[in-house]
Amino acid sequence: MVTILGMSEIGPWSLRDSSAQSDVIMRMMARNYMSEKLAEDIDSAVKKLSDSLYEIALSHHEAMDKIVEMLLEKETIGGDEFQAILSNSLRSHRKTEFLA
């Protein structure tokens, strides 16, 4: 997400060969072709993104719990069901903030 999709200040780029057989091997090889500074920047961007997503998940734990319940029950849920759960959670979250 950080290097290929550009979800950081680093930007979108890739050192991987798309025709390679093993993704794991290509990631290990790519690590050998970048500077330690770039590797540290990537690691830092991944940590920042991970921490941010964790905070979002914590703030919407009721929706996450509902999604987990549905997945345990049905094993899969559709996009419409997923969006409905999140929409309901956001509405109740906004009500709580408004009343506070």
Automatic annotation (TrEMBL):
Record-linked InterPro entries: Peptidase_M41 (IPR000642), Peptidase_M41-like (IPR037219)
Record key words, sorted: Membrane, Transit peptide
Any one biological process term the GO annotation gives: proteolysis
MF-aspect GO terms: ATP binding; ATP-dependent peptidase activity; metalloendopeptidase activity
Domain Peptidase M41: 1-85
Coiled coil: none
Superkingdom of the source species: Eukaryota
GO cellular component: chloroplast thylakoid membrane
PANTHER family the record matches: ATP-DEPENDENT ZINC METALLOPROTEASE FTSH 2, CHLOROPLASTIC (PTHR23076:SF139), METALLOPROTEASE M41 FTSH (PTHR23076)
The protein's name in its UniProt record: Peptidase M41 domain-containing protein
